[in-house]
Amino acid sequence: MKIIDGKVHRFVKLIVYGCQMNRSDAERMDGQLQEIGYEATEDMETADLILINTCCVRETAEDRVYGKIGEIKHLKEKNPHLIFGITGCMAQKEGEKLIKRAPHIDFVLGTNRVHELARIVREIEAEHTHHVNVGAAETELPAGGAPVVRESKLTAWVPIMYGCDNFCTYCIVPHVRGRERSRSMEDILREVESVVAEGCQEVTLLGQNVNSYGNGSEESFAELLRQVDRVKGISRVRFMTSHPKDLSNEVIEAIRDGEHICEHIHLPVQYGSNAILKRMNRKYTVEAYRALVKRIREAIPNVSLTTDLIVGFPGETEEDFSAMLDFLREMRYDSAYTFIYSKRSGTPAATMENQVEDSVKHERLAKLMEVQNEISREINESLKGKILEILVEGPSKNDETVWTGRTRTNKMVLFQRREEQAGDFIQVKITQPQTWVLKGEQV
Ligand code: SAH
Ligand code: SF4
Ligand code: F3S
Fold first, then answer.
1. Which of 381, 407, 427 is the last residue of a domain?
2. Residues 243 and 315 occupy one common structural domain
3. 190 and 85 in one domain?
4. Fewer CB atoms inside 10 A, N or C side of the chain?
5. Residue 426 and residue 367 in one domain
């Protein structure tokens, strides 16, 4: 707390882990906190309120959070007025166990209670007591029109649905985020229109499985894409994540025909053998996935495809793993997020037989990454000399003169800045393609 010109200023440091959904929730938390007078700070030492928006998808994610919780203890000792709260997926999963383990936590707020943040902070400011508010995993949708402070002025995340009904056997998300609920199309379009009116160029529609948007109603994801594409002034539309079992031909056509819908589909396959896919409860086969990718590539020739892969799932054999590598070589993804299977208690895979040894998991991960990196590099290499349109984002981390932007296919391009501003569309010629980024020159 600082008093400047007789006015009290309070500061909040919000630490965010996990997926875009968590970052989007954090924007809604920031929005509420700003309304009750908090200003963002990067400095934990002077913060009046510290929040960690947590992720529990893998054990490593949880370990990181416990580390951070430990670090904050001494700040709390120095400043007893500091309010410290845990929000997000771990909060939803662990509830009051977190406070039992670390009593310097003042409150725990579940993912379904984000909209109650301001009220709880106010209550703790008034009477410094512990609060735990996680509620049932399945609750109504957060109200539309809630205040949001966005990370970027250029690109906006717009959640279109919450929760997940798929229950992949390794995954904790449906257990913490609850059943799938879709926002109404009207509500989503209103939000998209308002961010575009504020100058946003790009919108990313978010959900654990966007293809099942509107499940059971007239409102389909294909229709939503078509409507968002038509919003006046919008330049780019992105969406994630697509579950392969629900990606319909109608959605493929909407992407093909949409003027602003970017040619990039994040299409997690998770594994490349039927035995494992079945035990993962992914509800598609390698053959069905292959046929889907064929349809996508025929309809959208320049499409970039990215994926998520898990190694070390229980019962994974050398044959499975070698089938996975073959599948990867066949699919030729632009890039892939690769994960080591992490046991999540309460999920069916955690108690499956034949858990894979850590050393084997690490070896397989290294091999998988080697194969994928080679493919990513080759695909990027083929872009050498091509002229691509990018949306300029801003200076790169290390060099003020080198700026970054993204292609419609979601590839990061580095270039020497002349006079363009963030938000400009420019043409760049790719001169030095690399595995993760493309270097280019403005033309
Ligand atoms: N709903 C999305 C992503 C959810 S989580 C989808 O279905 O694709 C993001 C990724 O984390 C998943 O795609 C999966 O690859 C990985 N993941 C989830 N649970 C995991 C676990 N227990 N161990 C390792 N990786 C996991
Ligand atoms: Fe998890 Fe599967 Fe749902 Fe994705 S689709 S969030 S991996 S259960
Ligand atoms: Fe996302 Fe992690 Fe939760 S991946 S949905 S923040 S468990």
1. 381
2. yes
3. no
4. C
5. no
Q: Ligand 2, atom 4: nearest CA belongs to which residue?
A: 208
How confident is the model over 179-192, as pLDDT tens digits?
999 999 999 999 99
The CATH number of the domain holding residue 370 is 3.80.30.20
Pocket test for ligand 3, best of 56, 181, 209 (most atoms within 8 A of CB): 56
CA-proximal residue: ligand 3, atom 5 (nearest): 173
For residue 430, pLDDT beyond 90? yes
Q: What is the mean pLDDT of residues 85-92?
A: 96
Specify the CATH number for the domain of residue 33: 3.40.50.12160
Question: Percent of the chain scored above 70 by pLDDT?
Answer: 98
Let me know if residue 143 belongs to a domain. no
Three-state DSSP string of 329-352: HHHCCCEEEEEECCCCCCCHHHHC
Residue 44 pLDDT level (bands cut at 50, 70, 90) = very high
At residue 122, the pLDDT reads 93
- Give the binding-site residues of ligand 1, using a 6 Å CB cut-off: 57-58, 170-171, 173, 208-209, 241, 243, 268, 270, 308, 310, 339, 341-342, 344
Ligand 2 atom closest to the Cα of residue 243 is 5
| pLDDT tens digits, one per residue of 103-133 | 999 999 999 889 899 999 999 998 877 777 7
Q: How many domains does the chain have?
A: 3
Residue nearest to ligand 2 atom 5, measured at CA: 166
Same domain, 302 and 278: yes
